[in-house]
Design a protein that fits this description.
about 475 residues; alpha+beta; five-stranded antiparallel sheet
């Protein structure tokens, strides 16, 4: 990049922003402008810079949106054209980067000078104002799309993480179940070879049923001394000739079986005792695997149900919902972030609150943003409190954390587009702005925050749709 001191009136005149201005009217604009030249590949406009209006006098540039380290191509800008006038008047960062595709000549008028000149020149002011609606419409559309994608990404990451464990457990259990069935088939053959009598087989079945009953009655406390029982059983099983006694001992110990039970099996089956014990142990293992498969399937089913509820699939645009259902399914979606922490969730719900007619999937984006921010603020430890109660003609939802709080200089800006207190690449600054628009613009409610060290609370008011709130 090279900088040139001044621009001429003739150069500015080619930009349609100045159509209708004579040389005298152009003179103050010429005095305020500085010019720079760029080669192909140079960054012409830095992202999120508050640099003023950019007048592309020659060349072509590529506008790009930059978010979380990713780049999205927006449009090509071909000279002569102007960029950033609306952002300059609203004193908002432009939010895009422009890269030179060929040699470019760019004039810049700073924010203060541009505001002063625009307000003194009705022709230019009117031309810019006519562009405000389409420009803001485009920006808001992009913000909403990014916010939706961010919420979708959070949901997808949570679902993938939560489904991984039960899916892996199901796969492992299915493989082990196949091995158990093979062992059962082989053991029956060993009984036949050993000539196990019918009477002995009857006693063996009784011992098997006893083992299954003991396993079904086990509690968590019963599992505390499993290791000691395994050692005792393993020694006894080895003594009577059981193959791989340490593996056979594990399901027996988990079912609270002991050496006395083993001796009863030996007395009932004689030489067939090793095969009999292996047969019963395999039954116990298969039963445990079946239970594990059932629990994994139920977990996956409940996750799919939670995601369906979270996104409100197969429902109309607005739905009558229980506000607590949305909060709870959002917690499921964010469960993967909570698992690696010692964060405590406290629920203070008023379950008597009526259902609300709302945009359910959009409202869940709000809960996702607020809860995700609270989890990040606590950095692994602390308490998040979710509270619901009636407040006049509204339902009030409060999400609070006991983290370090939001700095006072940032508190007034947290709902501004593109503002974020997170590190570079960690936040887009779109979440709270999107949450505010969903609550205020889409539902006619309110969203506020108060914060100090040790306490940050977001307050969400959602109005009743009825003419009067339900009787309490």
């Amino acid at each position: 990049m090279s900088t040139i001191a001044a621009v001429t009136a003739a150069e500015l005149r080619i930009v349609d922003l100045f159509d209708g201005l004579d040389d005298a009217q152009l003179e103050p604009w010429v005095a305020a402008a500085t010019v720079a030249e760029f080669e192909a590949g140079d960054t012409v406009i830095e992202p999120n810079a508050l640099a003023g209006v950019q007048l592309l006098l020659a060349g072509t540039g590529q506008l790009q949106a930059v978010s979380n380290g990713t780049t999205d191509m927006i449009s090509r800008q071909v000279a002569p054209t102007w960029i950033g006038a609306v952002a300059s008047l609203t004193r908002s960062p432009l939010g895009v980067r422009m890269e030179a595709l060929e040699h470019c000549r760019l004039a810049t008028i700073g924010v203060d000078d541009f505001e002063r000149l625009v307000l003194s020149e009705p022709i230019v002011h009117g031309r810019i104002m006519r562009q405000v609606r389409p420009v803001l419409g485009t920006l808001m559309g992009r913000e909403q799309s990014q916010a939706h994608l961010a919420a979708l990404g959070t949901m997808a990451a949570g679902l993938a993480h939560e489904l991984n464990n039960p899916a892996a457990a199901s796969k492992r259990a299915a493989a082990q179940m196949g091995e158990a069935l093979d062992t059962l088939a082989q053991t029956i053959g060993r009984f036949v070879e050993m000539g196990l009598e019918r009477e002995d087989a009857g006693r063996l079945v009784e011992l098997q049923q006893e083992a299954l009953a003991r396993a079904g009655a086990c509690t968590i406390m019963d599992q505390l001394d499993v290791a000691d029982r395994e050692d005792e059983l393993s020694d006894r099983l080895e003594a009577i000739g059981v193959r791989e006694p340490w593996e056979v001992a594990a399901p027996l110990a988990a079912a609270r079986l002991d050496i006395e039970w083993v001796d009863r099996v030996v007395a009932a089956t004689g030489a067939a005792a090793p095969a009999a014990i292996e047969w019963i142990a395999t039954h116990l293992t298969a039963r445990g695997l079946a239970q594990e498969l059932q629990e994994s399937s139920e977990r996956m089913s409940s996750l799919v149900g939670a995601i369906k509820s979270y996104s409100y699939m197969d429902r109309g645009e607005t739905q009558e919902i229980d506000i607590h259902e949305g909060l709870e399914t959002t917690i499921v979606v964010l469960g993967h972030k909570l698992k690696q922490t010692t964060i405590e969730l406290v629920r203070d719900y008023d379950r008597s609150l009526p259902k609300l007619m709302v945009h359910g999937s959009e409202l869940n984006q709000v809960w996702t943003n607020l809860l995700d921010n609270a989890i990040d603020a606590l950095d692994g430890s602390g308490t998040i409190t979710l509270r619901t109660r009636p407040d006049g003609r509204c339902v009030l939802v409060e999400i609070a954390d006991d983290g370090p709080g939001i700095p006072s200089e940032a508190l007034a800006k947290v709902f501004d587009p593109f503002f974020t207190t997170k590190d570079v690449g960690q936040g887009t600054g779109l979440g709270l702005d999107a949450a505010r628009r969903i609550i205020v613009d889409r539902h006619g409610g309110s969203l506020t925050v108060d914060s100090r060290p040790g306490s940050t609370t977001f307050h969400v008011w959602i109005p009743y749709t009825e003419s009067e709130p339900p009787a309490r």
